[in-house]
Each structure stands twice: as C-alpha cells, then as structure tokens.
Amino acid sequence: MDQPMPQQQAPAAPPAAAWKGPLAGLRVLDLTRVLAGPLAAQFLADLGAEVLKLEAPERGDETRGFAPFVEGESHYFLALNRGKRSLVVDLREPEGAEILRGLVAKADVLIENFRPGVMDRLGLGAAALMAANPRLIYCAISGFGLTGPLAGAPSFDIVTQAMTGVMSVNGAAGGAPVKLGLPIGDMSGGIFGAIGILSALHERSVTGRGRLIDASLYDGTMSLLGYLSQLAFITGQNPQPVGSAHPSVVPYDAFPAMDGAIVIACLADQFWPRLCTALGCPELGSDPGLATMAQRRERRGEIEPRIAAITRTRSVAEWQGILEAHDVPHAPVLGVQEALAHPHARAREMVVEVQHQTLGTMPVLGRPLKFPGETQAPLEAPPVLGQHTEEILRRELNYSAAQIQALRERGVIDRGTRPHAPAPQTENGPGSVTGNS
C-alpha cells in the first residue's frame, strides 16, 4: 500500500529586497574610461542603476594602470567604478560589436567618451544604435563637444581648466596660474553628463523615445564660472586670482593659527560684528565705515592682516570653539585623511566599506545623495577586470558555454587580464589615451 505523501511546508518567503535606489531597473552601458565618463556612470550606479562597464582587452580602462596600486588594483580605478559590472569585449571585432548591439537592445542608456567620430567608424554610433533601440539614451561625453571649431581636439582636465579661464583665477594674488587640485574639468563632464541623462529619462517617460546627449568638459566647466563670468561682462576686465579669499567678500579666507589654518567666512553682514566680538576687537564690529560688504572690500588690506595677527595667537581647536560659540561660519583646513575620518563624514555615510573580490574589505566614498525614509542597498565594490563577462553573456544574451569559450579563444572577450600593461598610443580607437579624459 502506498505510503501517504508527506505534507510539504510552504517555502519561506524570501527576504524583502533592499531598495536599490530611484534608478532601480535601469540598465546603463558604460563604454567610458579615465574620469569624466566613469564618474557619470558611477553616479547612476549610486542611484540604483545596473551599470555594465565594457572594457578594452588586455588593459581595460586606462586607469587600471595608474599607480599607486593595492595588490595590483589601481587607486584611481577604484575611486570611479564602484557598483559596476565589468565585461572585457573587443568592439573592433565583428563578434564584439555584435555583443554590444545585443546589450543595446535591452539597455536604457549608453555612455561613451571617445573622441567624436570613433563610434561611428566602428558602426556603433548614436544613429545606428538608436535606430535599433529608439528608447536608447546615448550620452557622448567629449572634451569640446560634437560641434564647433575644437570638436574632435584632444582634451584633458588641465586643458579644460586653461581654456575656460578657471586656471587664470586660481592661485595666489599676483602669482602664476594654478590648476585646481580637484579635476574640475573632468568632473564637470561627469556631473553634467549625469544630469543630461536624468533629464532625458524624464522626457522619455513622456515621449517613449531616447535622445542623443552632447556633454563636454568645456561647456560644463565654463558654466561653473558663475558670478566670475558676470564680473567680466560688467567690468570688461579679467577677474584676478585672490588665493583662498573672495573677490567681493571680506573676510572670507583661510587665516593662520598656531598649529594650522582656520577658514572664516562672513558672507553676510550680520556675521561681521559677531566675528569681531569673537576676535576680541568689538570696536571693529561697531565701526560704521566697515558695516557693509562693499566697505570691507575697500579696506581689505587693513582688515585681513589684523585678523591674521589675532588668529595666530590660538590653536585651530581653540578658534573652532570660540567661533562656534559666536555663530560665525568657520572650518578647520583639513587634510584629505582628516576629512575622511571626520565624524560628520562617517555620520553622513560618505565613507563606507565594501567587499572587493581580491582586496576584501576596503573603504570607498559613499553616495552623495540621500533619500530620507529609505534604506538603500549597500554599495558594491569596483569590479576586477572582466569579472562579469561570462555572467552577463549568459544571463542577458543567452550565450552557451561553448560560444563563450570560442569567443575567449579568439580573443574577442576576456583577452588578457593585465590591468597594468601600458596603454598603447592609438590614434582614435576605443581606449585611446589621446582623446579627452
């Protein structure tokens, strides 16, 4: 006699998936290298998008070869590629181009930062890919943009800073032009590239169609000139460098302390008398000839040396306590290590730990945008070169193990894993180091 079947228990409900972010479900193809493009794609990954990073054979993103390294992994690459999936695909091979076309069919966004014309010569330009997928948002990030007399010219961050006037206003008064320590030219390309993509996604939700985005380091950086551009328009003169000071606001500078420097920023007139009381010179705060910003600007040469003489008498920590008590905007001038270790940085989750495939637990910068009321899924580590090639080909394009092995043997995918091999000086091909960064 048959035994009765044991009663099966209903499987336990899977745990609720962590919220990935507002871009969850969005797929981004990242064909970029170095800084501007990878930064734009990383912002989208931070917001929950799935970012597939297609890298060139053998060396991958050029920054994989930028020293210093930690167990073979470049600090530069690690900083700009968190949360991505890495595939090594040779787009110059017909089968590699076919892989990209297959991924494009299921993608929402493609970002590339080759020189204008490179993708067209491969048959993978915006017109061709958007014809195959009309919903595709194609973001081209370049040094000078897709039009104009400098379109196609090579450009890197320092070139952008020089061409947009940024270097001319940076540095000490009367000194030589100085590049900003932050690569603002490259970063502006990444920031405005991401903004363009997000705006195009909104438009697509209405029209159902994608769009080509022309984002350039040049345009983005020039747009950040802000009030300096208007100053030049109005006065007909070039704004000059003033070190850490402000051309119109006094005091607004870094002042010496016994053991470092303290920033004091009186951007509104209400802070001036508070500062003077904190510094022990209340008579300055009540001087009617120093009551307004314009008046203090005219007497900069008198005010700033007097403040500096006072701030030299105490430590940074002492001034922090005094200025805080008087509600004066201020800050210690921190080194990068100190900034990363600051309690506020930790409280804001601007430094988090991730699990890297080869490095194990490692710190990375956190997401710059927060969404109160939601707990976003933990950040994922930057990928090692080609870490996800096979996984993506199997999952997204249904390639068999035999097909993947054949492509690998022919060097179409996963060709070499030498991230520190010198990048060849190719003229304009994918991965070219002669194009914009």
Describe what you observe in this structure.
The chain has helices at 36-46, 75-80, 94-104, 118-121, 126-132, 157-163, 184-207, 217-223, 227-235, 271-279, 282-285, 293-298, 300-311, 316-325, 336-341, 343-347, 389-397, 401-409; strands at residues 27-30, 50-55, 69-70, 73-74, 84-88, 109-112, 137-142, 212-216, 252-257, 260-265, 330-332, 351-356, 360-365. With 437 residues, it is an alpha/beta fold. It has two domains: 27-226 and 365-409, 3-Layer(aba) Sandwich (Rossmann fold); 252-337, 2-Layer Sandwich (formyl-coa transferase, domain 3), CATH 3.30.1540. The chain is elongated and about 85 Å long. The protein starts with 26 loop residues before the first strand and ends in a 28-residue tail after the last helix.
What top-tier CATH class of the largest domain fits best? Alpha Beta
Number of E-state strands = 13
- Kindly report how far apart the N and C termini lie: 76 Å
Main beta sheet, described?
A: 6 strands, parallel
CATH architecture term of the largest domain:
3-Layer(aba) Sandwich
Poorly predicted runs are: 1-15, 418-437
Biased composition (Polar residues): 425-437
Keywords: Transferase
InterPro entries: CoA-transferase_III_domain, CoA-Trfase_fam_III, CoA-Trfase_III_dom3_sf, CoA-Trfase_III_dom_1_sf
GO molecular function: transferase activity
